[in-house]
Amino acid sequence: MTNKYDSDAHVPEVKKKDFRRSYESELDNEFSSRVNHYNYKNFFISGVLLSILIWGSSFLITAITNLRTTEILHHEYEQLLKANSPPLLQSRPAVAWDGSGKIPLNFSAVRDGKFRPNYKSLQWIHEPSSIESDKGTYVLKDDSNGHLEYTIKSIVDDDYSFTLYNGSTFNYSDTEYKIESLIASPDLTKAILKTNATHNWRHSSFALYWLLDISESSITPILDTTSKLAVTSWSPKSTDIAFIFDNNVYVKNIASGEVKQVTFDGSSQVFNGKPDWVYEEEVFAGDIVLWWSPSGDKFTFLKSNDTEVPEFTIPYYVQNGHEDYPEVVQIKYPKAGYPNPSVELVIYDLDTEKDQLLELKSEKIVSSDRLITEVVWVGSSVLVKTSNRASDLLEIFLVDSVQNESKIVRSLTADDSWFEVTSNTLFVPKNESLGRLEDGYVDTVVSGGFNHLAYFSPPSASEGVLLTNGQWEVVGGVEAFDFNKNKVYFVSTMKSSVERHIHSVSLFDKSNNGLPKVENITSGEGWFAGSFSSGSRYLLLTYEGPEVPYQKLIDLSSLKDVKTIESNQEVIDNLDDYLIPEVKYEVIELQDEETGEIFKANAIETLPLHFDSRHKYPVLFFVYGGPGSQLVTKNFAVSFSSVVAAELNAIVVTVDGRGTGYNNYNDDLGSQYKFIVRDKLGKYEPLDQIAAARLWSEKSYVDSDRIAIWGWSYGGFLTLKTLETDVKHKVFSYGVSIAPVTKWKLYDSIYTERYMRTPQENPAGYEIASIHNITNFEHVKKFFIGHGSGDDNVHVQNTLKLIDEFNLGNIENFDFMIFPDSDHSIRYHNGNKVVYDRILTFLRRAFNGEFA
After folding, report:
1. Which of 355, 443, 791, 821 is the catalytic position?
2. What would the pLDDT profile of 315-352 be if each residue is shown by its tens digit?
3. Domain boundary assignment for the chain
4. N or C: which end of the chain has fewer CB within 10 A?
5. Residues 6+ apart with CB under 8 A from 596
6. What is the pLDDT of residues 132-169, one digit of tens each?
7. What is the mean pLDDT of the chain?
């Protein structure tokens, strides 16, 4: 699950659902999750790209873990607890009493961004010669000294440099426009500028787009100065720009300036080249569904017909210009069991100016229930992945774009599991001199229940050659391919499930017991991400933790550092001034109460400042728990958990229980650690949190009467489900649930049915997964629920229906706050500051015994 403004998990790490980037994904919220930070791919790094990994589609792990506060207002933090008096809320001096001279961590410092790492933005250039001769050319956005400049640089040649554009604004017809982004053409002669953007949903926006002619220093609108486009896309040859306007596809020829309209049926019901809400959120995790052929003479695009999809109404109460009557927005939103959009693929030939539907005939999947989950050009053919609604049947088509003849090259079923959405299939062109006798591709496949890589050549092959294998995961598919050395680069959990390392493997080397030998690009302890140059000779390596992050350029031909891009010295200096809570990673053993089975799980324990095991501390469990997600990661984060530990003198614990991803400790469970939740969300996840809380309650330094749990989105659901389930042991006394799903039949079809099937097929599972035993909440001392009224992802309907049931059941031991017009990330009108203040205040009062 993800939100309008939040990447995740689903990363590919929530490549897809990773809840990311300011107003373009959820993870740019002030308190970004530990889910993988970045979706670093060959085309570019745009700012800080943060990845849950969650795979397939995970909910918003909204803004929780790395307090990244670009827009949050300052907060007058309350005096910290005295270290020698943990249970009481007493003031603490601004400087630590132990004589260290350091300042105890406080919310103000975190919100001021003192511990927020800086990451350089870099866009690799894909020149026609990049594959044979990779000069490592890239666009550098330099805004130092308050002046913005876009410059082309080369790693190979320090003297190679020319300016694309100098400045952050331009004037057109006596009007000044502020540049929000610049995307250079592959041949570096032109660029697309974006201005006046209006945000739509999580990944999408509408904006004015402009064509910059670099040699002439001229700027002209791609369409006009009043029509906001949804998205634009360069052709591989830099000769054309495809764009979407009013849900129709257009093509502009750069030389002639002529604009041709490709489709004419775009409307509020029909989407061409642009995903509807559910495909944007749960499948493609982006704002465009149009793919150019390698030669640039054709492109294919997705056509979605939402006529049968029910509409959901969201009223906005405090928007500008709508102060007396609310603004009402209708969203085509398919809930579980309701009709999905009908999707087809269209191919357009620029030479003939004709389009045609691609034929995708299946005997197993009815077209009305078909999901199209990935589209990749493989030479002159198009590879298309499709699945059924339950995501347990995967059919892969190969379509000849000339003859429009298709065939199913692979048909796979998943028993008691599901197929996640993948999006990194890589075309490998034929090169006989390098041993590639035919065209092929590298794809993510499931081997032993874990995601691995396989090479398929020719593309029609039904069986691929495994490149990786083992009880560990390849995360996010193929990162890059060196066409001259036959090397595939990827990220994996091979070393540790709580780390990410970059590796390479050859297509043909079989020196590892019949498998290609995996070579390590990164080493030591840590979480690494990377962006590769066009020919994959150079790597922008980003180290994300557990120590202070840095970035450097590496020459992969020698594995030597070229230069450091970012050291984050300011963060290092700030850390020297503050006392920061200690974070401990551990593997714990939990027991299934029903079966007696003991299994291992990853956990993080964040300790209070000046922790003393002779004292008894309150404990807060921070949870997410969605299928395939992960919170226990070795990222650098001075997080909200750190703030709670420091300001409330409490212990914060996070445990990735069953249903989450990347656990490789349990040989007997294997991949079933994740897939055990199939058809029964909400059964095992709360049991594991209760088991973990019981484990902590027995520790000598824990006050078992002051144990709380909190989470956001899926974590909000898991919080409520844990409180509901905890009637036997009553280990949790308090809870905080933000933007929770309370009934899975109210959430969107593609995410929910991947794990639960439809409500018609699995009524018992949906009943168990909903929050339904209302009287079970009587044992809780107090809990808090918060939700944004403008949440387009997890509708406030979830919370309001639950509160109605609480009213009917006379459950009054909770507080509730609505955040007017806020979406899933709760950012509107200072909402993000207020919601965290409310959470911290609630926990402070709980741990101080005010609700006892």
Report:
1. 791
2. 999 987 777 889 999 999 999 999 999 999 999 999 99
3. 429-567, 575-847
4. C
5. none
6. 677 788 888 877 666 788 888 888 788 888 888 888 89
7. 86
Cis upstream peptide for 429 (omega within 30°): no
pLDDT at residue 100 greater than cutoff 90 = no
What strands, in cross-sheet order, belong to the sheet with 122-124? 122-124, 137-142, 149-154, 161-166
Stated as kind and residue range, the H or E segment containing 305 is strand 298-305
Show the beta-strand stretches assigned E in 339-484: 342-349, 354-357, 371-378, 381-387, 393-400, 405-413, 426-428, 440-447, 450-456, 465-466, 474-482
What's at 412, amino acid-wise?
L
Tokens coding 420: 């996640």
Q: Which one, of 390, 428, 279, lies nearest residue 341 by Cα?
A: 279
Q: Long-range contact list for 440-443, CB < 8 A, 24+ apart?
A: 440/378, 441/376, 441/378, 441/383, 442/467, 442/478, 442/481, 442/488, 442/507, 443/477
| 685-710 per-residue burial string, b: 16 or more CB within 10 A, e: under 16 | bbbbbbbbbbbbbeeebbbbebbbbb
Q: What is the pLDDT of residue 17?
A: 39
Q: Which of 263, 337, 218 is nearest to 753 (CA)?
A: 337
Phi and psi torsions of 808, nearest 5° = -65, -30
Active-site entry in 58, 629, 713, 737? 713
Q: 44 CB contacts (<8 Å, ≥6 apart)?
A: 122, 123, 124, 139, 183, 531
Q: What is the pLDDT of residue 128?
A: 62
Instruction: Give burial (CB, 10 Å; 0-12/13-18/19+) of 809.
Output: middle
C-beta atoms surrounding 657 within 10 Å: 25
Q: Which amino acid is at 639?
A: S
d(C-alpha 371, C-alpha 357), whole Å: 16
Count CB-CB contacts under 10 A for residue 268. Answer: 13
Among 37, 501, 787, 824, which one carries the catalytic annotation?
824
Q: Which residue in the block uniquely carries the two structure tokens 């035993």?
A: 773
Mark whether 792 is an active-site residue: no
* Residue 60 pLDDT > 70: no
Q: How confident is the model over 229-249, as pLDDT tens digits?
A: 999 999 999 999 999 999 999
Q: State how far the Cα of 201 lies from the Cα of 4, in Å rounded to an integer.
A: 4
Count other C-beta atoms under 10 Å from residue 794's C-beta: 30
- Map residue 577 onto helix, strand or coil: helix
Three-state SS for 839? Answer: helix
Instruction: Verify whether residue 573 is a known catalytic residue.
Output: no
Active site (annotated) includes residue 791: yes
Nearest to 685 by CA among 649, 651, 724, 648: 724
Name the strand (E) or helix (H) holding 519. strand 518-520
For residue 199, count other CB atoms closer than 10 A to its CB.
16
Instruction: Give the integer Cα–Cα distance in Å for 226 and 835.
Output: 37
The CATH fold assigned to 429-567 is Neuraminidase (2.120.10)
Torsions phi, psi of 576, nearest 5?
A: -65, -20
pTM of the model: 0.87
575-847 is classed in which CATH architecture?
3-Layer(aba) Sandwich (3.40)
pLDDT of residue 120: 83
The more confident residue out of 126 and 411 is: 411
Predicted pLDDT at 549: 96
